[in-house]
């Protein structure tokens, strides 16, 4: 086969017109409207791009992918023209008829900050608001402007050749354009169709020579039907196209994984036909094909059809019985991919179930729910599903009586949140892995009755008895009971609790820790007696030393 140069409508929005020149039509990858009166509301999903004046100031955004040009090394010299074209959806015709021309124009200007279609708003270019741009961040000088005051205008084209040449020549970042009224204070509204509409915006670029900007397109156009009965389709027809031409030697066609390319022919410049065997097996069949363009770009395609030998084989998975029809495969109603023996996408009408295993209906479920005690109008405990619940404090057991039958739920051994928290807190503060099996100390328990702490260290238990240990409070109490600085003035807690003097017997009685001690004063010298005895000594006794 020979290599063929093809021209015509292509996929991916790229169109070839002549063998000497090429027109590339790119569709937008993003467009939106930003509105001053709704500064935080995204509009990228709407079918129009709005341009409106003050009070409801609205500006349009549009962005195209220039990668096909960049990847194929298109230069500035190769570009003859470039326009952005919009299809008018509405023009209110209320533009000023007098005054300066800019009252009736809208302009297009390159954006210098990137933005996301799904989240761009008047305030922010993306959902993170990394760029708070307040109505858009764009160049100071518009690229082009157009008078749109005539209500008969259906298409608006802006010359963006200079911008495209700069994007390519200087390898500048391409963030698209903003479209707005030149004088946003003057009346006049125009709406354009967005990429969500039938006629989206286009970037139309005329090139001075042909470039292979996209892989070839390929489609299975025959068989046209999905199901054939008794008579199989006669042939397979595959169409193809490319902006610079396809390599016919690269075409491959398979039927049920069998290569039938050698049986195919090329009756035209844009399609290939392959006969289908007359003895076609009953069931599903798969067509696979692929083709390369002259640059080696490959595009595959797949298509399926079903053939039945006769009417009786149209449902080969079903077995007819005297009073039933059976199958061993999943059955889908309203779905092509049932995930169970029967999957229904929709509603099923059924009688009230009378036995276990019957399909439940809404009416049946509603009647059963009416008997649940949540909204029990009759207050009759005899007709409840759960008639009693009780908790045994000693055995730590919940007993639930369900339709007359008691079920016991033992709570022993269950850890409470407080218990778990306590155990975790007992782990080493620096224990990052929280694995109790690799700890030096794996458990620590306190016995309230025996006053004993049991520590399990590496599988061995150690008991620490707290009896006999003096606590801080005990020591403090004992100190307070000393008589040195008795602040509490309580005579019952003193070491010496009483001291009495008997005038007659000349005796002091001291009670110490509830035991009385007598001290007889008879025979003891008083201060007055000693003084008189000293005075009687020799008057020259200077040292007064008795």
Structure, explained:
The chain has 546 residues and is mainly beta. The protein is 9% helix and 36% strand. It has six helices and 35 strands. Strands 2, 3, 4, 6, 8, 11, 13 and 14 form an eight-stranded antiparallel β-sheet that branches. Strands 1, 16, 18, 19, 21 and 22 form a six-stranded mixed β-sheet that branches. The chain has a five-stranded antiparallel β-sheet with strand order 5-7-12-9-10, with no helix packed on it. A hairpin with a 4-residue loop joins strand 33 and strand 34. The radius of gyration is 50 Å and the shape is elongated. The relative contact order is 0.09. The N terminus is likely disordered.
Task: Summarize the model shown.
With 546 residues, this protein is mainly β.
Biggest sheet features: 8 strands, antiparallel
Termini, distance in Å? Answer: 154 Å
| Portion in beta strands | 35-45%
Q: Into which percent range does the helicity of residues fall? A: under 10%
What is the overall shape?
Answer: elongated
Average pLDDT rating:
81
Number of helices: 6
Instruction: Specify Rg, calculated over alpha carbons.
Output: 50 Å
- Identify low-pLDDT runs: 1-20
Number of strands: 35
What would you call the structural class?
mainly beta
Q: How is this fold's topology laid out?
A:
Elements: E1 3-4, E2 8-9, E3 14-16, E4 22-26, E5 30-35, E6 48-51, E7 58-63, H1 67-71, E8 79-91, E9 105-110, E10 144-147, E11 155-159, H2 161-169, E12 177-181, E13 190-193, E14 202-207, E15 217-222, E16 227-229, E17 235-241, E18 246-255, E19 258-259, E20 271-275, E21 283-293, E22 298-308, E23 318-320, E24 325-327, E25 331-333, E26 342-344, H3 362-370, E27 386-392, E28 397-402, E29 405-410, H4 417-426, E30 441-447, E31 452-457, E32 460-465, H5 472-480, E33 496-502, E34 507-512, E35 515-520, H6 527-535
Parallel strand pairs: 16-22, 25-26
Antiparallel strand pairs: 1-18, 2-3, 3-4, 4-14, 5-7, 6-13, 7-12, 8-11, 8-13, 8-14, 9-10, 9-12, 15-17, 17-20, 18-19, 18-21, 21-22, 23-24, 27-28, 28-29, 30-31, 31-32, 33-34, 34-35
């Amino acid at each position: 086969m020979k290599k063929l140069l093809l021209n015509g409508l292509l996929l991916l929005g790229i169109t070839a017109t002549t063998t000497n020149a090429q027109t590339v039509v790119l569709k937008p990858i993003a467009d939106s409207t930003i509105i001053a009166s709704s500064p935080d509301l995204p509009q990228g999903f709407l079918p129009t791009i709005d341009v409106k004046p003050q009070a409801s100031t609205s500006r349009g955004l549009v962005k195209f992918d220039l990668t096909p040009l960049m990847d194929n090394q298109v230069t500035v010299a190769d570009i003859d023209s470039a326009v952005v074209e919009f299809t008018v959806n509405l023009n209110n015709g209320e533009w000023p008829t007098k005054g300066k021309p800019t009252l009736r124009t809208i302009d297009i200007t390159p954006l210098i900050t990137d933005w996301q279609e799904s989240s761009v708003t008047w305030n922010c270019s993306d959902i993170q608001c990394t760029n708070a741009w307040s109505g858009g961040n764009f160049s100071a000088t518009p690229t082009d402007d157009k008078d749109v005051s005539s209500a008969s205008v259906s298409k608006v084209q802006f010359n963006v050749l200079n911008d495209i040449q700069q994007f390519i020549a200087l390898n500048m970042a391409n963030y698209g354009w903003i479209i707005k009224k030149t004088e946003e204070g003057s009346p006049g509204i125009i709406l354009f169709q967005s990429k969500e509409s039938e006629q989206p915006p286009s970037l139309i670029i005329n090139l001075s020579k042909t470039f292979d900007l996209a892989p070839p397109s390929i489609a299975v156009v025959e068989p046209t039907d999905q199901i054939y009965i008794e008579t199989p389709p006669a042939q397979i027809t595959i169409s193809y196209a490319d902006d610079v031409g396809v390599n016919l030697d690269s075409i491959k066609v398979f039927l049920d994984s069998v290569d039938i390319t050698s049986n195919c022919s090329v009756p035209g410049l844009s399609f290939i036909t392959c006969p289908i065997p007359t003895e076609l097996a009953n069931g599903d069949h798969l067509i696979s094909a692929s083709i390369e363009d002259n640059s080696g770009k490959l595009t595959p395609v797949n298509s399926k059809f079903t053939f039945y030998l006769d009417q009786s084989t149209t449902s080969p998975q079903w077995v007819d019985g005297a009073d039933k029809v059976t199958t061993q495969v999943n059955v889908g109603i309203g779905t092509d991919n049932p995930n169970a023996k029967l999957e229904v996408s929709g509603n099923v009408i059924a009688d009230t179930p009378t036995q276990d295993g019957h399909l439940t209906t809404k009416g049946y479920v509603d009647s059963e729910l009416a008997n649940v005690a949540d909204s029990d109008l009759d207050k009759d405990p005899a007709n409840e599903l759960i008639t009693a619940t009780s908790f045994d404090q000693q055995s730590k057991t919940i007993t639930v009586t369900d339709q007359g039958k008691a079920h016991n739920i033992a709570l022993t051994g269950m850890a409470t949140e407080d218990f778990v928290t306590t155990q975790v807190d007992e782990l080493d503060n620096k224990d990052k892995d929280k694995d109790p099996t690799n700890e030096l100390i794996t458990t620590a328990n306190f016995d309230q009755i025996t006053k004993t702490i049991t520590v399990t260290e590496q599988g061995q238990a150690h008991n620490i008895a707290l009896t006999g240990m003096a606590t801080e409070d005990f020591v403090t109490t004992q100190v307070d009971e000393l008589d040195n600085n008795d602040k509490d003035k309580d005579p019952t807690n003193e070491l010496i609790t009483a001291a009495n003097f008997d005038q007659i017997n000349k005796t002091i009685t001291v009670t110490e820790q509830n035991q009385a001690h007598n001290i007889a004063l008879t025979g003891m010298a008083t201060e007055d007696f000693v003084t008189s005895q000293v005075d009687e000594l020799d008057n020259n006794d200077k040292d007064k030393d008795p």
